[in-house]
Amino acid sequence: MEYVILFLIGICATTIGTLAGGGGLISLPAMLILGIPVHSAIGANKVSNTFSSFSSFFHLYKKKEISLKESFWIIPVSIGGGISGGFIASKISAENMYIVAITLLIFAFITSFIGKGNFTGQESLKMNKVSIPGLYSIGIYDGLFGPGQGTLMFYLFGYLNIAYIRAVGLVRLATFSSCFGAAITYIATGKIIWPVTLALLLGSLSGAQIGVRIAQKLKPQYVKPILRFVTVALIFQIFIEHVL
């Protein structure tokens, strides 16, 4: 029965994560409630996200919604940011990490009302003074803490005037990049409980395909309200779990 629950958790978390980020808001707390050790739960998330995020990206790539020429450089930038974040995390206290997380999410929430980006633009992703520092900084955040990484990236791509469906593909490629290295680390250190991880992985693969198909039909004007809802939920979860 536990594996069926994990499969359903994977579907729900990855569907939401594909649409607006924040899938970890569902999967990690749910796994902890089931009694799965925290490092094994995080490792299961990283492994499942590696495969599910790539499957979403590849679906959009096959549909020619996104090109490798536009997106390939995300991989080294995100990996570099993740490595930097992991190094910084070893130097910062847990309390300060939570403050950084809440501050960034509140900032993203406020700027969503100020910013002009509404995911209706047709700009391609280019290497410039906004995209490179933005993606690298979010990679650092992912290495530092993690929850909300995808949501922050959606805000960045909205600001860069990139169409929503292409933003989905770009976010999923960046998520694949950041999770790949982390997944290898958790596997190498023996933190993975494979039956748990495989059940979550199968659900995540299903959720990724559901989410990407919903994204192809989602009207751009609905994207920011969904992002704002996910952002508030992330802030609330982090505050309740780590501040109170």
From TrEMBL:
Q: How does it sit in the membrane?
A: Multi-pass membrane protein
| Cellular localization per UniProt | Cell membrane; Membrane
Top-rank taxon of the source lineage equals: Bacteria
> What Pfam family is a match for this entry?
TauE
Residues crossing the lipid bilayer are 71-90, 97-115, 135-157, 169-187, 193-214, 226-243
Fetch the InterPro entries from UniProt. Answer: TM_pro_TauE-like (IPR002781), TSUP/Inactive_protease-like (IPR051598)
Keywords (alphabetical) are:
Cell membrane, Membrane, Transmembrane, Transmembrane helix
Q: Name one GO cellular component term.
A: plasma membrane
The similarity annotation says:
Belongs to the 4-toluene sulfonate uptake permease (TSUP) (TC 2.A.102) family.
Identification of the protein by name:
Probable membrane transporter protein
Q: What is the lineage of its organism?
A: Bacteria, Bacillati, Bacillota, Bacilli, Bacillales
- What is the primary gene name for this protein? yfcA_2
